[in-house]
Amino acid sequence: MASGRTFLTIDLGGTKLALGVVDEDAVVLRRAVSPTVTADAAGCLADLMARVGEMLATGPEVAAIGIGTASMVDFSAGRIVESTNLPLRDVPLRDLVQERFGLPAVVDNDATVACLGEHRFGVGRGAGEMLMLTLGTGIGGGIICNGRPYRGFSGAAAELGHMIIDVHGPRCSGTCPASGCLESFCSGHAIGAAAVAEARAKPDSALGRALAGGEAVDGPLLTRLAHGGDGDALALYARIGTLLGVGIANLVNIFNPELVVVGGSVAAAGDALLEPARRQVVRQALRPQRDEVRIEPAHLGEDAGLVGAAALCLVELPS
Questions:
Q1: pLDDT band with cut points at 50, 70 and 90 for residue 3
Q2: Is CATH 1.10.760.10 correct for 127-298?
Q3: Looking at domain 6-116+303-316, which of 3.40.50.1010, 3.40.190.10, 3.30.420.40, 3.30.2010.30 is its CATH number?
Q4: The model's pTM
Q5: Same CATH topology for 6-116+303-316 and 127-298?
Q6: 264: left (phi over 0), alpha (psi -120 to 50) or beta
Q7: φ/ψ of residue 92, rounded to 5
Q8: Mapping DSSP to helix (H, G, I), strand (E, B) and coil, where does residue 58 land?
Q9: What are phi and psi of 149, to 5 degrees?
Q10: Is 145:127 a contact under the CB 8 Å cutoff?
């Protein structure tokens, strides 16, 4: 049974669109997941509106709509400014949703939304100074400063995945103009590409045999092999985790957080990824920051976006 108000929550990512009904205690009462329509803006928005309408039509009644999107967002205007992995630019999404469905709505970057969810309901409870990295299709970030979300001057802060860690690195994805971003090395797409390259370089390895057998060689396979103790998979995650640690060390030096949370689908690798990152932070970050910070996996898992969007409603909309 729902506790108090319920919210229709949306996680609009570059790969999947998830909708849910979530109560004030972060219980997900309903959920629906489908591939994100990315061919063009009109199709993406039409599909989103149709699925919201379907969810509202089948109940229960909701108090508001919370939306996290893989986009740079002008939070005060509720407007998508630009998206690296979605065909959306200069879209007044909050107003479109409010006008269409007659409910209060709030829109924010999906990683900030996930960060809010972990801060209110997950591993970050009670943390005043917290950062979150979401490792999925791309890499997003969220910042909690003095117990509140920090969004910067225009609401577009915390694009932590676009921190450059190697100026001679590969070009970043989508509309990002930079090279050598953290996202270029540690996102799901980057890890999948690294796994394929490793499989081709080592045809007699487990990755190589999987590739030869027609199996999908990607991040989930790499994670399964690492959890099974495969040496090549563990070595590859050690390299990726070290690069992640370079990025986290930079953030630790700049922000001095008490907690860095790593979430998203890539975080399923667990300590195969996080232990090399922690070791790199010890090597590279300054004192006292490096001795104070905790680096922990997210607790909300696949529901981070849906629960986070409920947290966004609770934090930003009047009760």
A1: low
A2: no
A3: 3.30.420.40
A4: 0.89
A5: yes
A6: left
A7: -80, 70
A8: coil
A9: -65, 135
A10: no
